[in-house]
Design a protein that fits this description.
Order of helices and strands: EEEEEEEEE
Strand content: over 45%
Shape: elongated
Distance between the termini: 81 Å
Radius of gyration: 21 Å
Length: 102
């Protein structure tokens, strides 16, 4: 009876996906002529140990983050590290300003 293909053991149901969110924003610095984007800054999610770099416009997006309190470290050589904590309840925006060292 070719209408009934042989069915192997049914796969276990996939676990319900855990909702994850992304955080994006712009990293900049204050200059004499106003705010300027910082390219090549590292944004590290301290909770997931995931990191991304900002592009030429200072923009970044970091995804795969769970809901709840999250901690980010923004750093770039020549600047003071910036630690930011925020509550993630959905896709969020986090802009930060870096300050040049001494």
């Amino acid at each position: 009876d070719s209408n009934n293909p042989i069915v192997g053991p049914s796969p276990a149901p996939a676990p319900a996906p855990v909702a994850t969110f992304s955080v994006s924003g712009t990293i900049s610095e204050a200059t004499e002529s106003g705010t300027a984007p910082v390219e090549g800054a590292t944004i590290l999610s301290a909770d997931t140990e995931t990191w991304v770099l900002t592009d030429a416009a200072g923009f970044y997006r970091i995804s795969g983050l769970g809901a709840g309190m999250a901690r980010f470290v923004v750093s770039k050589e020549g600047y003071e590290d910036r630690v930011v904590e925020m509550m993630i309840e959905g896709d969020s925006q986090l802009d930060a300003e870096l300050v040049r060292e001494g």
